[in-house]
């Protein structure tokens, strides 16, 4: 079976600067896949590669066997209709109401008329428990509500693949748990696969079926598997420090920096 998303030998760079190399993974329909790793290792950058915002330095990204960067512009646009994204900042348009924000991707998809778009937008707002806030502006909502509105916007067109960048970061534990439950509910109702970035151990253990761990030090993945399995079986000290909250490994001494102890 062809995977919904397949990443092969991906290398990511900003100019000359290497961010990560040797990334390989597949995401099957209906599964929840976690991207893990410390701050600045390249998780958001990876999501931007996966949604077509940044071109790979090397390697391929295919959707249902179709190579995104080998496709022409029309082909890429067609592939993009297959995914929804919730950015780290939620990224709602502040001058638009919540309803208008959720209608936007439906308008871009161009398949429904105005009345149908509004009906669909109100339906997904109902799912995320924001039906009563349809006519509010983003600035009127709490952080957790904004994330839920962003989630509603990401799922409005019912894409088979949803990308979420730190959906529960900065939320209190109850709002965070609520967002996890929503992600599970959406997978249940739409059959969508979810690729998400998270530092929240309860989320990772509760919802992820599979995942990859990116290492800032070696600039490559150091573990691949479900967060629960990695917590119990991973041997790499960085992965253990993150998932099992064990003491992190001591910093690698730098050959170029004189140590403080050197007279
Ligand atoms: N547009 C950019 N141009 C140059 N460097 C960038 C850009 N975006 C991110 N970076 C750098 O790439 C690295 C990875 O960033 P990011 O993917 O945001 O990390 P994470 O999401 O894992 O915290 C960081 O060192 C960051 O400073
Ligand atoms: Mg990030």
Which properties best describe this structure?
binds adenosine-5'-diphosphate; four-stranded antiparallel beta sheet; binds magnesium ion; single chain; Rossmann fold; alpha/beta; disordered C terminus; 2 domains; 263 residues
Give an account of the 3D structure:
The protein is of the alpha/beta class and 263 residues long. The chain folds into two domains: 1-82 and 160-249, P-loop containing nucleotide triphosphate hydrolases (Rossmann fold); 92-158, no CATH class. It is built from nine helices and ten strands. It has a six-stranded mixed β-sheet, with helices on both faces. Strands 2-1-4-5 form a four-stranded antiparallel β-sheet, with helices on one face. A hairpin with a 2-residue loop joins strand 4 and strand 5. The longest helix has 18 residues, at 173-190. It is globular and about 60 Å long. The chain binds adenosine-5'-diphosphate and magnesium ion (MG).
């Amino acid at each position: 079976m062809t995977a919904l998303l397949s990443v092969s030998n991906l290398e990511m760079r900003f100019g000359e600067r290497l961010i990560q190399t040797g990334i390989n993974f597949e995401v099957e329909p209906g599964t929840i896949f976690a991207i893990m790793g410390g701050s600045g290792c390249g998780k958001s950058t990876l999501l931007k590669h996966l949604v077509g915002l940044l071109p790979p330095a090397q390697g391929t990204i295919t959707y249902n066997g179709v190579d995104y960067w080998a496709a022409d512009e029309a082909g890429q646009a067609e592939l993009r209709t297959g995914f929804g994204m919730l950015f780290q900042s939620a990224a709602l348009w502040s001058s638009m109401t919540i309803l208008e924000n959720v209608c936007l991707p439906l308008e871009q998809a161009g398949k429904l008329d105005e009345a149908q778009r509004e009906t669909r937008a109100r339906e997904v707002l109902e799912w995320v428990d924001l039906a009563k806030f349809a006519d509010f502006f983003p600035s009127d909502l709490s952080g957790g509500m904004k994330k839920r509105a962003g989630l509603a916007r990401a799922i409005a067109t019912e894409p088979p693949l949803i990308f979420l960048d730190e959906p529960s970061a900065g939320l209190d534990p109850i709002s965070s748990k609520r967002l996890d439950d929503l992600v599970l509910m959406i997978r249940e109702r739409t059959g969508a696969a979810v690729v998400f970035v998270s530092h929240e151990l309860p989320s990772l253990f509760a919802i992820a079926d599979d995942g990859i761990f990116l290492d800032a030090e070696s600039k490559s993945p150091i573990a691949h598997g479900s967060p629960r399995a990695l917590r119990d079986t991973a041997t790499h000290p960085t992965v253990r420090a993150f998932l099992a909250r064990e003491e992190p490994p001591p910093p690698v001494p730098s050959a170029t920096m004189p140590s403080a102890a050197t007279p």
